[in-house]
Design goal:
The protein is an all-alpha fold and about 375 residues long. Helices cover about 35% and strands about 0% of the residues.
């Protein structure tokens, strides 16, 4: 009889266990631990839970951006006015059909919404067009960091055969034939001489005025705690902790301004891109690309250096996998020192579906810019 009771008790317990809700890792609003996490962020950022940072990683705390109160003052400066005209003027290209704004369209998040850029003779570029949001805050330019200043960066798209295809040596003479530009150069620089350095300097001055506007995320940091809902706050918590995103995406603009191989090198396959190696020639840099800032990311899709990804949930799932599927075996690396190894910061995250959705919800809260810039008139002759 005792044996029967024990068996029945076990069966009942098994039945109760079988029909109980399966723990998914997502803490519901009725869970005290979940609410405790939410409340821990509804206070000044200096009192937030510390992020999970790997040893040796240089990082900085998140910070809010403010509305650009100097925007209209900056836009009225002579050098910026000239730079804006040049930025939108297709005469800077060999064909007189392509301007900087062809790939950096203000109505498309200062990018082109293409997988890769499309330029002279409808030739495709090799990489996705980076957005110009907050470009003044960058420490290097291009996905591989081959330019250190905006002025230096300008030579790339102006002269590339598959972009604007312009001979930059001939550009000043070409623009000097446009009499209408001379008064603008004189206002900007004190005389009407047109040089390449002045052209790229003016364009860079304009580009430095392109800034993200505050998002709901910024409002939350600044104390408006209803700006984010509980799912978004929990997603931010996961971003800072379990998901490890802060190891690369930290600070005001959510980038470490560094270079990482996240496992998307496609080495010796279609879409191969050696990344930073093309600049440094260091085999350890094969497949490394610059960490993009996450501000206004909903305005700048598709994402990654090759523009192959257009779904945020898919990207989070990709990171969730750990991305070490194509690392070389020791014998492969010994035979081929160029064989790329995925960054050790990349690890399987064991995120649940609910956690993935929470992180996506947080990422979507980072977009705040909505204004559109009117295309300026520029001298025709």
């Amino acid at each position: 009889m005792k044996k029967v009771i024990i068996l029945l008790s076990g069966a009942v317990a098994f039945g109760l266990f079988s029909f109980s809700p399966k723990f998914t890792g997502f803490l519901g609003s009725d869970n005290p631990e979940y609410q405790k996490i939410i409340d821990s962020y509804k206070q000044p950022i200096s009192q937030w839970p510390k992020p999970t940072i790997e040893e040796g990683v240089v990082w900085s705390e998140m910070a809010s951006i403010q509305k650009d109160s100097a925007y209209f003052t900056d836009q009225s400066k002579p050098e910026v006015i000239l730079g804006r005209m040049l930025f939108f003027d297709p005469k800077l290209s060999k064909s007189n059909q392509i301007s900087c704004s062809s790939c950096h369209d203000p109505e498309m998040g200062w990018t082109d919404r293409r997988m890769v850029g499309l330029g002279h003779d409808h030739l495709k570029g090799a990489r996705n067009t980076p957005s110009l949001y907050n470009t003044a805050e960058r420490t290097s330019y291009f996905w591989d960091g081959r330019a250190n200043t905006l002025e230096e960066q300008a030579t790339g798209p102006l002269s590339a055969h598959n972009e604007m295809a312009m001979d930059v040596v001939e550009l000043p003479a070409k623009l000097s034939k446009v009499e209408g530009y001379k008064p603008y150069f004189e206002k900007a620089f004190g005389d009407n001489k047109i040089t390449y350095e002045r052209v790229v300097g003016a364009i860079a001055s304009f580009q430095r005025t392109i800034k993200s506007q505050p998002s709901r995320f910024d409002a939350f940091i600044d104390g408006k705690y209803k700006a984010l809902n509980d799912q978004e706050i929990y997603g931010m918590h996961l971003f800072r902790t379990k998901a490890g995103c802060m190891n690369c995406h930290s600070g005001k603009y959510l980038t470490d301004e560094s270079f990482h191989n996240i496992g998307l090198t496609y080495y010796k396959r279609q879409f191969e891109d050696l990344g930073r190696y093309e600049v440094t020639k260091d085999p350890n840099d094969v497949g490394k690309f610059k960490t993009p800032g996450l501000r206004d990311l909903l305005n700048t899709r598709p994402w990654m250096h090759n523009g192959l990804f257009d779904n945020l949930e898919g990207i989070v799932n990709m990171y969730n996998s750990g991305m070490h599927m194509i690392d070389p075996k020791p014998e492969q690396k010994a035979k081929d020192p160029m064989y790329p190894v995925t960054d050790p910061l990349m690890k399987p995250l064991e995120l649940t579906k609910e956690e993935t959705k929470a992180i996506v919800a947080f990422l979507e809260s980072l977009s705040g810019s909505k204004f559109k810039m009117r295309r300026p008139d520029f001298p025709k002759e």
